[in-house]
Amino acid sequence: MALASGVRFAPRALLRPWALLRGTTLGRTEPAAGGGGDGARRFGSQRVLVEPDAASGVAVMKLRNPPVNALSLELLTELVISLEKLENDKTFRGIILTSDCPRVFCAGLDLTEICGRNPAHCAEYWKAMQELWLRMYLSSLVLVAAINGACPAGGCIIALSCDCRVLADNPKYRIGLNETLLGIIAPFWLKDTYVNTIGHRASEQALQLGSLFPPAEALQVGLVDQVVPEDQVQSTALSEMARWLAVPDHARQLTKNMMRKATADRLLRQRDADTQNFVSFVCRDSIQKSLQAYLEKLRQRKG
Ligand SMILES: CCCCCC/C=C\CC(=O)SCCNC(=O)CCNC(=O)[C@H](O)C(C)(C)COP(=O)(O)OP(=O)(O)OC[C@H]1O[C@@H](n2cnc3c(N)ncnc32)[C@H](O)[C@@H]1OP(=O)(O)O
């Protein structure tokens, strides 16, 4: 990811994401409906659909890991690869991230990846989560989240690592970090991202209470930048994108780096310790029990 000035600010020592790939179908390119030239060709993978528009330099990236876009290891990996692909293509300056699943933007960590799994798997999973956050948080592209569904926990992290957030005005589409309600604790880099977005006091309250904010409250606290009727989320995200792209890339990119680098560096300095911390915490019997109970409650809630 080179800046116009030649500065590279994406962490270079990141995992090679394709090493994590199992049974995915990356790199597939197909014409979009009614499409013609290059600008109308879709590409992506099984769980991430990319609709590039070369003319505007903007790609729409859709999460499609039904039913709730839970962040499985495969989805995390495919997101990193799609992001990297767009970043390496000079045609693109911005990405609109949205969901292809009805009513849910992203349900957060895939709890089945950390329930009843061995420590090695949990470590691999957590590294992939760190990787995605680092890549998104420091991306040289403009990232706009078009939040067209519920956005708890890890879903909120994805949205917060974008530059701008547009949320559909539906009381069911709540957003926030609800980790404490699952008996788990947001890691420091998540807490830092929250504080950077909504300030210390609001974060302190929201993190301890595990608050999930409905749209009007999310707007008020500053978690999202716009709340609009559901059918206007995409068009508003495009208008926001135009506003951000009106700024010269090099100036915007260097400013973004100035604002975010310290937060990302903090994780980069202690990535292994953060992984060990995560693994030893989630593998505790008591935490496994509460995660299992939460998952069971989700399953029983159905119907
Ligand atoms: C040191 C510790 C560090 C901790 C790191 C912290 C970082 C992030 C934490 C997390 O992200 S933990 C995950 C938190 N997520 C949630 O609490 C959301 C839970 N899900 C929901 O509230 C709802 O599913 C929804 C997203 C609002 C959607 O509701 P809807 O009614 O549309 O769908 P459901 O019927 O509830 O679910 C369908 C299906 O999906 C399964 N499922 C839902 N969420 C998850 C998940 N996060 N992981 C795995 N599976 C999930 C749910 O059980 C249903 O499954 P089936 O019954 O169909 O088998």
Task: Please provide a written account of the structure.
With 303 residues, this protein is α/β, with parallel strands linked by helices. It contains 10 helices and 10 strands. Helices cover 43% and strands 15% of the residues. It has an 8-stranded mixed β-sheet with strand order 1-2-3-4-5-6-8-10, with helices on both faces. It has a two-stranded parallel sheet with strand order 7-9. Helix 1 packs parallel to helix 2. It is globular. The structure holds ligand LJEIAPTW. Homotrimer.
Features:
303 residues; binds ligand LJEIAPTW; two-stranded parallel sheet; globular; disordered N terminus; alpha/beta; 8-stranded mixed β-sheet
Give the rounded overall mean pLDDT. Answer: 89
Low-confidence stretches: 1-29, 31-39
Structural class: alpha/beta
Helical run tally = 10
Strand content: 5-15%
Largest sheet: 8 strands, mixed
Main-sheet strand order equals: 1-2-3-4-5-6-8-10
Gyration radius from CA atoms, angstroms: 18 Å
The helix fraction, in percent, is: 40-55%
Cα distance spanning the termini: 46 Å
Order of helices and strands: EEEEHEHEEHEEHHHEHHHH
